[in-house]
Amino acid sequence: MKKIIYALAIAASLALASCEENIPTGLVLSQPFVSHDSEYVTTIIPTAQAKNVLIEEFTGVRCSNCPNGAIVLKNIQTANAPRVLVAKAHVGNYGIPIKTDLDLRNPDATTLSSSLGMQTQPSAAVDRQLNTGTDYTFSINQVSGKVISQLAKPTPVNISLEKLVNATLDTINLAATFIFTDTTSRKLAFNIYLLENKVVTHQDSFDVVSLSTLEIEEYEHEEVLRKSITPSFVGTSFPDILQPKGKVYIRALQFPKPSNVLNLSNCTLLVFVHDRDTKEAIHCQQIHL
Amino acid sequence: MKKIFLLGCLLFTKQIFAQISGELQANLNFYENDTAIVVKGNPLYENYKSGGESWLALRYNGENGFNANVRIDGFQNSNILNPNNAFTAAGIGMFNVSKEWDNLTITAGHIYDQIGTGIIYRAYEDRALLIDNALFGLQAKYHFSDKLNVKAFTGQVRNLFERYNPVIKGINFEGDLDYKKAHFTPGIGVVNRTLDKGSMDKVVNTVNGLPFADRFIPKYNYYAATVYNTLNIGSISWYVEGAMKTEEAINNAQGLLVNKNGTVLYTNAGWAKNKIGINASFKRTENFALRTSPNESALRGFTNWQPIIAVIRPQRVIARYTPASQDLSEQSYAVSTQYTPNDNYSINGSYTHINNLDGVKLYREVFIEGEIRKIKNTIIHAGTQILDYNQAVYQQDGTTFKSVTGFAEITYKFSEKKSLKADLQYMDGHGDYGSWAYALLEYDIAPKWAFAVSDMYNISTNANFTLHKGLVNHHYPNVFVAYTHNAHRFTAQYVKQVAGINCTGGVCRYEPAFSGFKIGITSSF
What we know:
The structure holds two protein chains of two kinds. By secondary structure, chain A is of the alpha+beta class. Chain A has helices at about 1-15, 65-80, 105-115, 140-150; strands at about 40, 55-60, 85-90, 125, 140, 155-165, 170-180, 190-195, 200-205, 210-220, 225-230, 235, 245-255, 265-275, 280-289. The relative contact order of chain A is 0.20. Chain B is mainly β. Among the domains of chain B are: about 100-295, no CATH class; about 310-475, Porin (Beta Barrel), CATH 2.40.160.10. Chain B contains five helices and 32 strands. In chain B, the strands form four sheets. Chain B has a 24-stranded antiparallel β-barrel. In chain B, strand 26 (about 435-445) and strand 27 (about 450-460) form a beta hairpin. The longest helix of chain B is centred in the N-terminal third of the chain and has 15 residues, at about 1-15. The mean pLDDT of chain B is about 90. At the A-B interface, loops of A face helix 3 of B.
């Protein structure tokens, strides 16, 4: 009888192990994805979205003050959720991997740091507001006040995002729709960042109790800038300078999974519109993959 | 080579010829176009005029544990598949071969079997509804001991002379145990169905036609499992079965595909002692549609059978309103009691209560009947039924049908061989066709002859129904004669039959009115 029970247990295990099924071919579970660019003027003007604030933070795994800076930014996000979006660029010598860890730095992050005049780490640009000279970054302690003043501003553009991830081909489709709810004559461009969450590496951290630097073995990084899908910093310009009320731009992109991305399901696409002259980010949205 | 083959056939035939048995059933219909009851456009009545069907089954039982069955089915302008159109086809309807070795039995071919009451799997034949969902494949049974048997099977479900493409697999363990005065016969079974690519493509097409919010990922496989047991202890017999199935695409009550798992709980308990017997049943069904694929509907492609809580009544007018088992949503119970004070009298009363899971009333029946044998050579059987029947659910027509029916059946024996039976039924109905009266006289000369004449008539027609269907009061007569010689029975009847639901074992289908002659032959050899 024992043999029979063992045989049944093995058979049941095999049966359970074979329960996973692939999605049947031809199944369409969501609206067919927009696959081409389009632009037009609509007479149906949607309600203007509340303006979101973009924080581009500069950090690194050897930056011992950065974990505390990350906590400050997280608190700002939580207090103003969901209107504060953060992208974290790992740059410079503070970004050199510890031991055999992954290198979280990349050329797009480096371009961003030089373009925004980064002076130190941790620091952050808030909607790319100018600080002094060519420096668009602020110390972390200054971020909260900047965020509050930026949140009070309106935005003339609505951003809505749709995505389609092909797990088999490791490709990502993004359709970004920009609808101008108010007329503007600013020279505008849009940027797309691919951010990854739950990336685990070593991280130096300053311990305020012992007043010494510790090494955290498994630090989970959030919102790591992995790649700028549009040209880093400058983004992709809208073709017209005058954007009348009701102007709609639909931009469809397909791109492969960047080689430095570990897990697409942990990623987010962050899209923002900025002024090409002043650099100011005027609105942003994000979508999880 | 050809000669060797012919010799082999001859030897084989010679060896087995004496051990063959079998039976024949043949029906022949002559369609008489009665425009008052037969809907226009039916080619059986307007063009073909006659048709029929036959089944010839042969069985070989070998002494060496080898058994074989074959059945030849023929349909010539038959109305049995679709009463509104002719069906013509012929061929080998089923065949199988089996071999027993000690405790192992292997069967290949068309296999009829079930697990438990059939809630997760049943392959059976019901010719009246042309149900034959035999599994074409392989089955192995192993008798471990008197306390444990196991069977496993795999194959495809029969679809007339073809097969549905999805594959069915199953395994079933059954035990037989005693504990003190209690006797247990437990069982456990698991069934898996796997869709083929073609069936899945159809499902995907249907899902793609749904609103985006209602779309889902259909599964190739469902897994259904059941656990059951019969307990016998003293005067009590109690059967209980619980079954569940995994998520898959099924058609909901509106005919739309939904992704649901399902459950069934069924139990039946009986107690009998001295002159009293009590029986009670309960069933709860939720989304338990098991078919070869969700592309099939009505009587097509189902792979299970659910016990029916309501009692199927033989009375002609009552049988029109039999409730079919609901595989999506049903909660029902029935209680019946029988009292037999002596050999001369017996009385039976029952109550049946069926709702769907949303509490919508589907069926209520109060039924009382009694039998009197005290008068010499006479049997009197009489009763009454109070009925509440949700016709909109059971027949997708009308609303709720309510009725009170009385019936009386008197049989008088002139001698050991000759008897006369009179059957009177009256249904006071509200809804559907309205009220019915039915009368039958049957004269039997055992064992060879039987003669019967009957008529069914609308006493008062439901005005709304008449307006809707355009029917007027109508007679539905039946004249019947049967002759039996040894194992052969020949029947002939002139029939006018009202349209209605034809049910067998809780499985029902709508059949239009019939008008014409029927000739039947059943024979065993």
